[in-house]
Amino acid sequence: GWRIFEGIVESYQYRDEKGFLRGEAVVRGVGKWSGKKLKTWIMNEHLMAWIDDKPIVMAPDLIMFLDDEGEGITNSILKEGMKVNVLASRAPAIWRTEKGLKYFSPRKFGFDMDYVPVEELVGKIS
């Protein structure tokens, strides 16, 4: 996996919509990410992430929020002002197949973009 961002949660908004927690989180970068912003789109989980409006992780790949001790931060406890470390990991191979992407991909969630593996996107971070 990759540590893709570190920062402070600037905003976190969500709503219950048809049985799903939907929303977004915005994280203001600190340290080497100072001056940058990470935004995630949430449907129960963080499914899409952008740094300064450039995609960095897409479903089905995994996005994880952790505290400084490495403990996971679930959406139910995430709050504005929290310091977070954002990690990304490859999805299991079955989700990266044509059949898997038919059910779990950016297009499936209404985004007008094809899936790009996290390892390719992370390689583009400047």
Q: What CATH architecture would you give? A: Beta Barrel
Straight-line distance between termini: 18 Å
Compute the CA-based radius of gyration: 14 Å
Question: Beta-sheet strand percentage?
Answer: over 45%
Largest sheet: 7 strands, antiparallel
Sequence of secondary-structure elements: EEEEEEEHH
CATH top level? Mainly Beta
Observed structural traits:
globular; mainly beta; CV3147-like
Write the layout of secondary structure elements.
Blueprint: E1 2-17, E2 20-29, E3 37-43, E4 45-51, E5 54-58, E6 62-66, E7 83-89, H1 98-103, H2 118-122
Antiparallel strand pairs: 1-2, 1-7, 2-3, 3-4, 4-5, 6-7
Question: Can you tell me about this structure?
Answer:
It is built from 2 helices and 7 strands. The protein has helices spanning 98-103, 118-122, and strands at residues 2-17, 20-29, 37-43, 45-51, 54-58, 62-66, 83-89. β2 (20-29) and β3 (37-43) form a beta hairpin. It is globular. 9% of the residues lie in helices and 45% in strands. The mean pLDDT is 95. The protein has one domain (2-122): CV3147-like.
Concise overview:
This protein has helices spanning 98-103, 118-122; strands at 2-17, 20-29, 37-43, 45-51, 54-58, 62-66, 83-89.
